[in-house]
Design brief:
There is one protein chain. The chain has 190 residues and is α/β, with parallel strands linked by helices. It has a single domain, classed as HAD superfamily/HAD-like (Rossmann fold). The longest helix is centred in the middle third of the chain and has 19 residues. The radius of gyration is 16 Å and the shape is globular. The protein binds magnesium ion (MG). Magnesium ion binds next to loops.
Length: 190
């Protein structure tokens, strides 16, 4: 079991605003969600790595190239570093489409498991934060705790459900140290 812990963040709808029926294909289409820039240093201060976990099937579908995505992520990291002195510790991208049958496209846990191996993470002490139930399922499938950003009253399997990242982070911090170890029956449908 690893000794480090991580906050895994979904990208579209968590780090940046989602585009309706479209993909973020260029940096000028990228807008940070409220709270992200402010919360990032706080997460690091609590001893978590911050790792981006994103499905980007726009690449698999030919809507954008892998290089387009690299350029966006390079600019995002530069911008975060300039504004906060912090950036993502790692970024994992699944570029496959549903039909490709990969083990990385969320809700599959592949990207989280890969990160756990690479950074020696304790997944039970780590959290997956997303705005889709497939993010939550990926987190559960990897054995993580989960938090959802969504509308009030959303039905979700996530432990925490709030409307923005700052509220999720506050709830997570308040809850984190008081949680018991994840019980096996919580993850029996793995
Ligand atoms: Mg999302």
């Amino acid at each position: 079991m690893g000794i480090k812990k991580a906050i895994f963040l979904d990208r579209d709808g968590v780090v940046n605003k989602r585009l309706i029926d479209d993909y973020v294909k260029r940096w000028d289409e990228f807008r940070f969600m409220p709270g992200v820039v402010e919360v990032l240093p706080d997460i690091h201060a609590e001893g978590y790595l911050v790792i981006l976990i994103t499905n980007q099937r726009g690449i698999g579908r030919g809507v954008m190239t892998r290089n387009d995505l690299h350029q966006i992520h390079r600019r995002m990291q530069e911008d975060l570093l300039i504004r906060t002195g912090h950036q993502f510790d790692a970024m994992y991208v699944c570029s496959h489409d549903n039909s490709d049958g990969c083990d990385c496209r969320k809700p599959a846990p592949g990207m989280l498991l890969h990160a756990a191996k690479e950074f020696q993470l304790d997944l039970q002490e780590s959290w997956m934060i997303g705005d889709s139930e497939s993010d939550i399922e990926a987190g559960i499938n990897a054995g993580c705790r989960t938090a959802k950003i969504g509308s009030k009253g959303d039905s979700t399997k996530a432990t925490i459900s709030e409307t923005d990242l700052r509220s999720v982070w506050n709830a997570l911090k308040a809850l984190g140290s008081r949680l018991h170890p994840i019980q096996m029956q919580e993850s029996k449908d793995r």
